[in-house]
Fold:
Amino acid sequence: MAEEKKLFKVKIDNISVEVEPGTTILNAARGIGGDVVPPAMCYYSKLQGSGGKCRTCLVKVTKGSEADPRPMPKLVASCRTTVMDGMEVANITSPEVLEARKGIVEFLLINHPLDCPVCDQAGECDLQDLSYEHGAEGTRYEFKRRTFDKIDLGDHIQLHMTRCILCYRCVFTADQLTASREHGVLDRGDHSQISTYIQNNLDNDFIGNVIDVCPVGALTDKTARFKNRVWFLKPVDAHRNCDNPKCCGKVALWMRGDEVFRVTARKDQYGEVENWICDTCRFEKKDVKDWTIEGPRKIDRHSVISQGHYVNTVKPKDPLVEVLDGRQPKLLFDIHTQSEVNRPTIDLSKIDGPAHSDDFNKSQS
Amino acid sequence: MQTLTNRAKPVDRRPMTFMEKMYIPAIAKGMGITLKHLFQRKATVSFPEKKRQFSPVFRGLHVLNRDEEGRERCTACGLCAVACPAEAITMEAAERKPGEEHLYREEKYAARYEINMLRCIFCGFCEEACPKDAVYMSETFAPAMYERKGFIYGKQDLLIPNPKTSSGK
Structure:
């Protein structure tokens, strides 16, 4: 009997959408798109079992279902609640939800250090966007923030536990992508931390993806650490034929001139990775020659990353050569004779880890 | 044509009268204005010897600030560079090593920090953008020079003297 699958009719912020049974409210809202999509810090559609931790996706269910039209008594986490037929959900139309979200952001920021000027994630940080859009101006927290020492997880990943919001995404990533998981959440409550048991190194292939899934700057790429800010880099789509059968080789390169500062997976509009990439692609291929560049990556024009306006730029023709009858204008001043920045002799992107004082002083001699 | 202000004066194209053709009264009138200004207060000052006082909000040459312990405040976040409409500011960041805590305030610092004073338009956006109170604009301006090469101000030109050692470096 080829009976058509019954679709559930849901109304989110007075916009109707029909989804399959078993879909979560968050995914139904993503089907609509736009402003009605609740923000999510811990839910990750590519990771099974993620979600339900951060509570930023709280929504109000004003009508439970067609059969039972009572509203749900409390706000529910939309990433974990499945839809019912005839359900009506209020997200941005409910002041209660917006108020609750503001509180959640304040909770998330209680222990999060305000070191965005230092953090490499700034500019592409989910928590930064979330607190900008939904957060309050100040915090009411008066006590000392919890701090941890920095940990090196292997050669390429730096764990900055102080910034962690315990979304568990990296734990799921290691569980589901890599051969074996060697890190997890230790301790409880305020003391809980992402860590490896006795500083075990993370060197499974595909472990680099924990950097991409991290919504904050807790897990960062050590090969790109402090090298440049994301808004000075130009993201371009590129690919290479990776030997690893599980790796697609499709990445986003973060370039400046001909230097490849960082390799990440391509992220969609919800900040989720489209295709996982292997560690060889991510950490070891920092040369333009390794890659086939497809073109500039489309970046939301409101993002700070697009401040360079590199898409669709037309370089105007230099009229000077024509006016001077083909002679090149005399260069009066070569910037490199005076400037110490961007010296041709020192390639920041080729240094393994973050640059140190001796990296700069060595070049002077 | 409708005038934009009521101060517009139509051009007088009538032929000149005999008195106007003599020019003498007009010249005398003009010389009178010149003579009057000789005895008035001068609007200019003779610059290098005499200097005008700057207003407290004057935006002059930049300085890089230190904190109370003499550590550099700048953490090379790049916000001044991204705010700069003239793209005059460039920097390169480095990580603080253990043992350098007395030099730099944060774990990241600007190993190189340069302001191209030829490009700078002294708008003060960098000062406003700085989250660490590191860039300030002082009440002096860039000295005139015959060549371009002295106008790239590096960290040694911008940093204020260390209050602890006050050696200047």
Residues 95-108 of chain A form the longest helix (14 residues). The mean pLDDT of chain A is 86.
